[in-house]
Every structure is written in structure tokens, then in C-alpha cells.
């Protein structure tokens, strides 16, 4: 059985071909998983709607179908995640020069951090944000929330939180590649906070400052956690080399 050539042992056109094959494989798997998840879209939509006090509303004939399709796509991405994580493992092992064991650990950490981010969004950020935003209506205004707008908000926030929680792993990779240092991270906190504000403003699917702040505070905390993790790694590195 022929194996796919390494992305580092081929020329430019060979690398493009390897990347094309991997992207095509991911796309076909995502399409199959999305189709497989569609029969369960109603149950998934009911689960996603739980933080919202009240029913969702359809304002256009296609909105219900597109809402189910959007939920199915999100489920398809989750079901495709094992293959995505496997490609991440190969990237860490070949491009970032991680040993096989470290690459597998990094892949597992990436999955765990993303899951923690999505859970944090669903259990903390989303209920608090909805309570705050819907509170502006008062008792005299009924909230008619469309399926598409609600899914854009919830799935957008979930994706933003999942990506945001990857910060410790990203800093670890950059540190291993000697692109950043602990002194650099610790000495540029003020710029990091400013950059975090810009990033959360981009990632937040709503324009209000309250939702943005709900993402900004955890992101700053993750930045500090990243520094602590790197300090622990540097402290343990000599011990691991001696062993």
C-alpha cells in the first residue's frame, strides 16, 4: 500500500499536491458527516436552544431548513474532528518537529482545550449574555428571535471560545520554535491586552461591549496561564534531559 509522501520531502508542487489531497479528504469527510447528522438536526437545535428563555421564530420560508443545515454542519465539523486532529498531529510532528509522543499529547490537548472553550461558552457566557441582552426589552417588549440570528450568535460564540482556549497550546508551539520567549510575553503584557481587545472585537459575533468583555477577561487569564505553563516547561526541561 502506497503511503502519502511527507510534506517536507517533496518539492513545491509536491507540497501543494499533498496539501490538496489532505484538504479534499477533509472536505469529503465533512460533507459525509454533515449529511449523516442532518436527521438529528431537530434534537441538536433543541439542545442549542436551551439557554434561550422562549421559542425561536422563523421569519422566512427557508429559515427553518437553513437553520437545520447550519446545525448539521456544526455537528459535521465535530464528527470530522478526529481526522482534523490527526492532521494536526502530523503537522506538529513534521513541520514543528515535535516527537511522535509530544505530537499526540499536543493533539489531545488541542481537543481538550477546544472542548473546554465550547463548554465554557454554553454554560457561562451564553446564558449571561442572553440574560443581559434580552433584559433591555423589559416587560413591555416581546422578544422574537429568529433561528438564523440565534444560531449565528451561539455557534459564533462557541467557535470563538474554542479558538480562544487554544492560546496556551499556540504559545507552547511558538516557544518550542524559538519564536517567542517568556521574557517577551511577560514584558509585553500591555500590548497583549490591547491585542486581546482587538481580537475579541473581531471574534465577538455581536457589537455590544458586554459580550466582548465576557470574552476579553478569559482571554487575558489564558495569556497569564500560558506564561505559567511555559515557566513550568522550562523548569522541567533540564530534569527531562537528565533522565
UniProtKB/TrEMBL annotation:
Bilayer topology term: Multi-pass membrane protein
Protein name as it appears in the record: Sec-independent protein translocase protein TatC
Function: Part of the twin-arginine translocation (Tat) system that transports large folded proteins containing a characteristic twin-arginine motif in their signal peptide across membranes.
Subcellular location: Cell membrane; Membrane
Keyword terms of this UniProt record: Cell membrane, Membrane, Protein transport, Translocation, Transmembrane, Transmembrane helix, Transport
InterPro entries: Sec-indep_translocase_CS, TatC
Subunit comment: Forms a complex with TatA.
Organism: Candidatus Entotheonella gemina
Gene: tatC
Any one GO biological process: intracellular protein transmembrane transport
Membrane-spanning segments: 23-45, 65-86, 107-130, 150-170, 182-203, 209-230
A Pfam family the protein falls into: TatC
GO cellular component terms given for this protein: TAT protein transport complex
Family: Belongs to the TatC family.
Molecular function, one GO term: proton motive force dependent protein transmembrane transporter activity
Amino acid at each position: 500500500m502506497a503511503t502519502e509522501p511527507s510534506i517536507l520531502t517533496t518539492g513545491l508542487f509536491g507540497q501543494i499536491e499533498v496539501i490538496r489531497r489532505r484538504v479534499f479528504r477533509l472536505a469529503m469527510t465533512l460533507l459525509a458527516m454533515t449529511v449523516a447528522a442532518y436527521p438529528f438536526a431537530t434534537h441538536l437545535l433543541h439542545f442549542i436552544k436551551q439557554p434561550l428563555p422562549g421559542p425561536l421564530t422563523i421569519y422566512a420560508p427557508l429559515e427553518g431548513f437553513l437553520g437545520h443545515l447550519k446545525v448539521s454542519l456544526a455537528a459535521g465539523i465535530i464528527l470530522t474532528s478526529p481526522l482534523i486532529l490527526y492532521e494536526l498531529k502530523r503537522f506538529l510532528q513534521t513541520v514543528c518537529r515535535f516527537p511522535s509522543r509530544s505530537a499526540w499529547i499536543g493533539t489531545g490537548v488541542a481537543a481538550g482545550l477546544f472542548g473546554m472553550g465550547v463548554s465554557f461558552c454554553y454554560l457561562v457566557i451564553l446564558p449571561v449574555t442572553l440574560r443581559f441582552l434580552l433584559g433591555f426589552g423589559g416587560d413591555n417588549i416581546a422578544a422574537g428571535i429568529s433561528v438564523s440570528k440565534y444560531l449565528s450568535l451561539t455557534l459564533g460564540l462557541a467557535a470563538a471560545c474554542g479558538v480562544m482556549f487554544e492560546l496556551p497550546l499556540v504559545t507552547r508551539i511558538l516557544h518550542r520554535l524559538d519564536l517567542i520567549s517568556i521574557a517577551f510575553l511577560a514584558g509585553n503584557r500591555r500590548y497583549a491586552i490591547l491585542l486581546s481587545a482587538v481580537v475579541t472585537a473581531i471574534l465577538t459575533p455581536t457589537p455590544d461591549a458586554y459580550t466582548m468583555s465576557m470574552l476579553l477577561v478569559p482571554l487575558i487569564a489564558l495569556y497569564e496561564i500560558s506564561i505559567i505553563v511555559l515557566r513550568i516547561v522550562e523548569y522541567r526541561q533540564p530534569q527531562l534531559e537528565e533522565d
